[in-house]
Amino acid sequence: MARMHDYDQIGALWNDWQGAIATRPADPPETILSDVLRTHGTLVSSQEVSFALAGADREASRSAARFTDCMVALLGDPALRLRHAFAAFDADADQTIAKTDLLTVTGAFADTPEEAGLLADEIDADGDGRISLADLVQYLDGAPPPVAQTYRATHVPDHHLGAFPGMPAPSTATAKPHPDHDADAGISPLHLRIGFFRLMQGAAYRSFRENYSANSETHIRARDLPYTIEDFARFTTVTIDYYLALGLITDAACIAEFRRLDEIVQAELDRLHTRVRTWPTIPRTPGMLAAQAKIADERDGLSRRQHLCRAVMELVLSLRLHGLRVDRSGVDALAGHEINRLRHQDLRAETHRNASIPRPWDADTDYRDSWNRVILSDADARIDGAIMPTRFWYDEFMPQLLLCASLITADDLRHARGTTEQDLDTWHAELRAQGAFDRFATDLRDGFAACSFGVKRMLKQAWILTAPYLTGIEKRRERAEFGRDSGFLSEYVAFIDVHLGRNDVATADMRLSFPYYIGPAVWAFLHGSAELIETMPDAVRRRGTDRFAAFFRGFATMYPCPYCRYHLNRYVIRNREVDMYPVEFLLLGRQPGRHDTGITLDDKLATITAPGALRVFLWKLHNAVSSSIARTEPWYHRQPKPLYTSRFWPSIEAEMARSAASGHDAVAIAKVTEIYGITKPAAHLAVLRDELTRALRADDKASVAQTIDRAEGAIADLELAIEEASFLTRKYAYDPAQAGLPPTVDAIQETFARSGVFVER
């Protein structure tokens, strides 16, 4: 039963589950339900079941009604989903609802009130002002099938039900002791190049066609956070300015290559503006006309409103999943659910593809000849001519970005320019003979020989920047069902797939925003660059912090992970999760005499000008993000009562776990003393944060002010401890002699990496 079509099936499943729970009291309910489903022929993992049941706050195991809400959202067929969503409204005796009832929910999705009203009018075909279930069924009859981005109440794709793959066998590499903690210290030139590259390519991939934070079709607090091409152009400039301000790239010819990267982006943006301005008169290729037709359809077509109608019904299912009434459909009510659902859905969609879904581009046509709609500004108007050529990203942008990300010294540039095709063929043949491409880069192994000289050079650069991930510990942290043991180079590097006979970009099957691919690399880049700036003479350092402030404002608009960007903008920089963040971040940037947590990003960035302040700013930010970010891995959060915040770093607990995983029965006294000196004031701040949370909830302004004043002293103690220990400097200081290549990952390291207390350094 891949899909359920009536309530009797759900009732039978409920009875089977309750019976199994009674006989297996020690097993988790979600595991039992997964087993019960398997006996019915539906193969859904316990993780997927757990995610669906989490919305019901475990009430689903005690209430048949709440269980029904969860199972319709997880397994219901389209007819049952529509029926169950409609039942959430307060229908009259004639089983109809007023159009205004529907508008209550539609407002979360429609771009304008007029669009919401038009949708309601179209559903109310007879014009009596009432809507029945039959009206909804008729309206959606013959509608286009849901697209990949259509809002769904749960994260499980249709094609995945009944087809859950078996888990691959775990790695059986020979175990060896884990290296000492300080063996991971230091930032290499390759670390910085990788961080720069992944940020830039990720931002380009999110901007080269219509894309939003969270998801382009949910509209749950995301319509005002699009990835705009204007923001990307600004981000390119400020990121290059910041990277060059680090003082590592001093050769004039190398600097000129970075400036050229900026120039080609700005020039393409100018061509876009000209295209919009002169659209009625310019010649148009078939690719341009196809992209423009999509704009017109989205702006004016019925299909968009039919997708919107489906999304509204799915939102109602989400509300039912959480036990909320339809009139509580404000986006904040589901914000936490949205972040988790979208991340899980995105990962699932990228690693469990459905071959039956029509692809957006004809396989017999060169995808580079296509054009894509881009978003010009936050207003997101569907403007005629607001399209860009795909070929620009393949033929101009990516080759130049890969070149820049391969440069530090003049020798690097001479090597890039002096490499011959014979050199490249020899390099490829040697690595192929070693089996380097056999596991995660068969596209590079098999497609390299047919490529042109320029493409071969680009592919080698892409491999050098990506191999540390594919062969390193972060790849092994991916969940098995999300592709830990699969992958191609062209899934991690944008705009090279066509050269290797693949279509990962066209079909949106990229992995470049996977959390373990983008996160650690970017944090290493941020911390490492801060250490470089902090070593500069004061006047130069001030210029560096100014460049960082401009870069970070752009970073907030362009971070490649849509869900992380949503969390950063909607929560972290707004101090919205007071009960999760460390107090030193909550109060960072507080003006004297002000006693609240309403501190802006500009206030926080204003603190980085003092010596050592940029280093500490990033440490506080990193701990704030780590304390509140959500992951769906079952091992990720195992600390119900942490000392301060969840996943605070440095941590004695993490250090003990590292030593235990390495087979050591002790941790060095000096290391324990150092970490204890940092966590001691952190423990004091943990108490103050609890007091601050209670005072804020009670709206006790006097207690809030008193607690904030007391916290300032503890924050000063913490900052002094982290500076005196030189902890951050030792972990992130730039080391030009370091190769930056990861050690071989063995079974012990892999187990530790998914232990729940793993940290990169």
TrEMBL record:
Any GO molecular function: calcium ion binding
UniProt keyword terms in alphabetical order: Disulfide bond, FAD, Flavoprotein, Oxidoreductase
PROSITE patterns: EF_HAND_1, EF_HAND_2, ERV_ALR
Coiled-coil ranges (or none): none
Entries under SUPFAM superfamilies matching the protein: EF-hand, FAD-dependent thiol oxidase
Alphabetized InterPro entries for the sequence: EF-hand-dom_pair (IPR011992), EF_Hand_1_Ca_BS (IPR018247), EF_hand_dom (IPR002048), ERV/ALR_sulphydryl_oxid_sf (IPR036774), ERV/ALR_sulphydryl_oxidase (IPR017905)
Cofactor(s) annotated in UniProt: FAD
Key word Disulfide bond present: yes
Entry's EC annotation: 1.8.3.2
The protein's name in its UniProt record: thiol oxidase
Taxonomy of the source species: Bacteria, Pseudomonadati, Pseudomonadota, Alphaproteobacteria, Rhodobacterales
